[in-house]
Amino acid sequence: MTPTPPVRRLRPRLPRKVFSQVLLMQLAIAAGVAVLATGLFLAPLSKQLDQEAMHRALAIAQTTAQDPQIAEGVLTTAPTVNGPVQKEAERIRKATHAEYIVVMDGGGFRWSHTTPSEIGRHVSTSPKEALDGQEVMQIDNGTLGRSARGKVPLYDAQHRIIGAVSVGIAYDSVRARLLSTIPGLFAYAGGALAAGALAAWLISRRVQRQTRDLAFSDISALLSEREAMLHGIREGVVALDRGGRIRLLNDEARRLLGIGDEAVGRSPDEALGAGRTTDVLAGRVTGTDLLTVRGQRVLVANRMPTDDGGAVATLRDRTELEQLGRELDSTRGLIDALRAQDHEHANRMHTLLGLLELEMYEDAVEFVGEVVGDHRVTAEQVTEKIQDPLLAALLVGKATVAAERGVALWVSDRTWLPDRLIDPRGLVTVVGNLVDNALDAVAGTPHARVEVELCTEGRAIVLRVRDTGPGIPVAQRELVFTEGWSTKKPPTHGKRGIGLPLVRRLAERQGGSATVGEPEGGGAQFTVVLPEALTAPELEREPALTPAEEEAR
Length: 553
Known about the structure:
GO molecular function: protein histidine kinase activity
Distance between the termini: 118 Å
Largest sheet: 5 strands, antiparallel
Region (Disordered): 533-553
Protein name: histidine kinase
Order of helices and strands: HHHEHEEEHHEEHHHEEEHHHEHEEHEEH
Subcellular location: Cell membrane
InterPro entries: HATPase_C_sf, HATPase_dom, His_kinase_dom, PAS-like_dom_sf, PAS_fold, sCache_3, Sensor-like_sf, Sig_transdc_His_kin-like_C
């Protein structure tokens, strides 16, 4: 026989969606609160009704005890069914709707009772407190069952205690009053539950929209994946809430910014202090691939707003790329300089060969001395004024290219640049583009001249490149920074109109500016301002003295 497969018991599965789970939980909470509130209301209500019944029983007992017929009957008659005490007590009982009224003498024997056979018998509960002159209220069990009782002493005309009066109100009547209020209570509780269910549904719908109807397990998985991704990527990530406070930092952001968990919950100004990095994170500086400096690190920052009013900023470390960029730019500058020097060297060798063939030996010696001396003076002047080797090499190479094209390239006497550049590659790009444009502008003009001036103002660098060319009309001074705009015919291998836009874009990324004007004497003057382009100096350095100044000193 084929074995019968085991019967699988189907267990009720809870809904997985956040909307359904939140709705069920809130409905359960609302129902529990309604039941708890009803119970908390019924408990004091029951005590209140008991108190009211006991006070009522006590008041009836006091009224009965003050009836002179009761006291006189106890003193003058015997305890019988048709006696005056029983008749008067029954009259009061029926008028007050009490369960029983028992009048007893000082010995505790009954003179009245709702059951005639009990008259003349001893009471079932101790009358000692009432016979001692005390008034008693209690819930107790007697021959008529559980009741709310009130006992008072019975006095004669001389105010002597001759007995006691006990009045009872059946407890079932109290309970009946309590039970009669329960339907109304449940009606109110049902209304509150319905209102709670509606509120729970509205809240659940809102939660559903905000969670995009995902299950709790899906949300948990997304959070786990987000944590793994944030702490695994090589970019720094900083998340800010709608109030501008930091709410998330991954490991790379902590390393790049030099801050820890104490920054969470604080604004960038409080966590980082004043500076360009703070302005970028806070959104006061906008743009893409913004260049910032934090300590000794050069960072590229991007900031993207989120739907909840906050923002997420990413940080890339460009410090490690600076060495590669420096080496690449040095190689390119060296190649350009070598090409120009090779061409110029060939021309000079031809000139020297001609002088030797003409047997003009003295002129040949003088020509060689002038060539070597000019080159040495140019290199020395550049390196004395510009301490950064990459930029100095660029200008030496550009001077050689300018000499080949018949243009005089000068470095202004006011130039001084320490070797503390944060972004030397960016500055090389700016200077190279401006010098190339200036060389193109003065090409073919008489007394062609290009002057480069690099000055520092605190941590800012101010670059000016002047030329003796035709200049730029006022109407076109903004157009020259538009990508693709050029007065020259584009070459077959590429396009023109990208150098000056690149210069302005690099300047603006660092929070600076690039403008063009007209210097004295005509031509064009490009001015680039780069704030925070230098690192903070550890020691103040004085500019190097020229040989003439050294001799004078």
